[in-house]
Amino acid sequence: xxxxxxxxKLISLIVVTIVLAGRQDPVWNAAAFFxxxxxxxxxxxxxxxxxxxxxxxxxAAAGMFFTGYRFTADAALPxxxxxxxxxxxxxxxxxxxxxxxxxxxxxxxxxxxxxxxxHMIRSFQRQLHLPQVFAYGLLAAWGAxxxxxxxxxxxxxxxxxxxxxxxxxxxxxxxxxxxxxxRWSNELSSAMESKGFSPDTKRSEYxxxxxxxxxxxxxxxxxxxxxxxxxxx
Length: 233
Hints:
Layout: H1 6-21, H2 26-42, H3 47-70, E1 78-80, E2 86-88, H4 89-113, H5 117-127, H6 132-161, H7 171-194, H8 213-232
Antiparallel strand pairs: 1-2
Helix pairs in contact: 1-4, 1-8, 2-4, 3-4, 5-6, 6-7
């Protein structure tokens, strides 16, 4: 999954998400979730990291289950889904809503954990024709995030050294960070303009992002075969 073109991967996963949105089948949702987990783990993601990321998803799924269980149109009627699940309509509706949360989270994590952000922006610029000004802006913002996190820790340590307790989202912490972020953005903009990074200038690429055969295979499978299978099943 890490070698797939990010633009093709994004379009394919969006199509899969739309297909799942049109179905009320918890088995399809569960299949999408477990397949996403297998692909994520096979791409080198640690199990511990993945389990930590799934904690808020499990909480959201539990909330959706009880919401679906409580608010059901056909109350107390025994139903049988396409997957041969015989259950009360409250339970089936809750399972469907909860499984949908897991499916969407799994697909989202599949893209986020198997895609390099620099490669993604370059792919968007190449295949989806993202304007250069937005591409450079995103790359610059990602480059500034580590400096912002370090500055936040320094400011918080300075308050602790003075014996002052502040909340993590206190304006006393965020105000200096906001001022320095504006200063960094101005300096970065001036530096990029001085080096010839103009949105109107066409630039060559040192390592262009290419589209391979397996990218087309993955796109066709997700955009053509999965919708057809969902209609047949």
